[in-house]
Structures are given as structure tokens and as C-alpha cells.
Design a protein that fits this description.
By secondary structure, this protein is mainly beta. It is built from no helices and eleven strands. Helix content is about 0%, strand content about 60%. A hairpin with a 4-residue loop joins strand 5 and strand 6.
């Protein structure tokens, strides 16, 4: 089993910054994809940013230039640096990972962390 533990959410004023972290634990051989999603009540979960093992990244248009995704393979951790935050960034943020265990492939979700942007 793979467990993902997120941290770093909270309340921030518009224009502020937050850094989210998500650490994986378990008998993991490798992690191919590390993603951040977000969801607001009544809407579908949306992909915010993704990074694959080679380092290539992808961002939603709404966060390009403001958010940066990065990964530390040794720590099995993915980060999301969020700058110039806007009220519309308010959501529950979830990390998601896909990779390989000794027993086969896996994909797992974190428990979610609330990000609230408000004055």
C-alpha cells in the first residue's frame, strides 16, 4: 500500500504565497507521475499541475506563471509553490501519484489540504 500525506495548506491573503508538500510512503520502486489537483464544492476535480519522472511539467492555464511544481525523488515528495494567489484558487488540493511497487503498479490520492485565499 502507498500512503500520501499532504501538508502546507491554510489561509492566505490575495497576492500571498503557500507551498504544499506531499510525501509518499510504502515499498515504492519508482514514481512516474506526480500531480496536484484541486476541487471546489459542486465542481469536478481539476488538474492543476503535473510532473513526470524525467522532469517535464504541465500546468493548467489558470495557474501558469504563478504556480511551480517540483519533485524530490529521494524523498518521494512533490511540492507545489503557489504565488500571487487569487480568491479563485480557493479549493481543496489533492496530490496524486502513479508508480511501481515491488508487487506491481499503484496509483494513490492524498487526503486533501484546504487552501483559502481571502482578505
Amino acid at each position: 500500500q502507498v500512503q500520501l500525506v499532504e501538508s502546507g495548506g491554510g489561509l492566505v491573503q490575495p497576492g500571498g504565497s503557500l507551498r504544499l508538500s506531499c510525501a509518499a510512503s510504502g515499498s515504492i520502486l519508482s514514481i512516474y507521475a506526480m500531480d496536484w489537483y484541486r476541487q471546489v464544492p459542486g465542481k469536478q476535480r481539476e488538474l492543476v499541475a503535473s510532473i513526470i519522472s524525467g522532469g517535464s511539467t504541465n500546468y493548467a492555464d489558470s495557474v501558469k506563471g504563478r504556480f511551480t511544481i517540483s519533485r524530490d525523488n529521494a524523498k518521494k515528495t512533490v511540492y507545489l509553490q503557489m504565488n500571487s494567489l487569487k480568491p479563485e484558487d480557493t479549493a481543496v488540493y489533492y496530490c496524486y501519484m502513479q508508480g511501481i511497487l515491488w508487487a506491481g503498479g499503484f496509483d494513490s490520492w492524498g487526503q486533501g489540504t484546504q487552501v483559502t485565499v481571502s482578505s
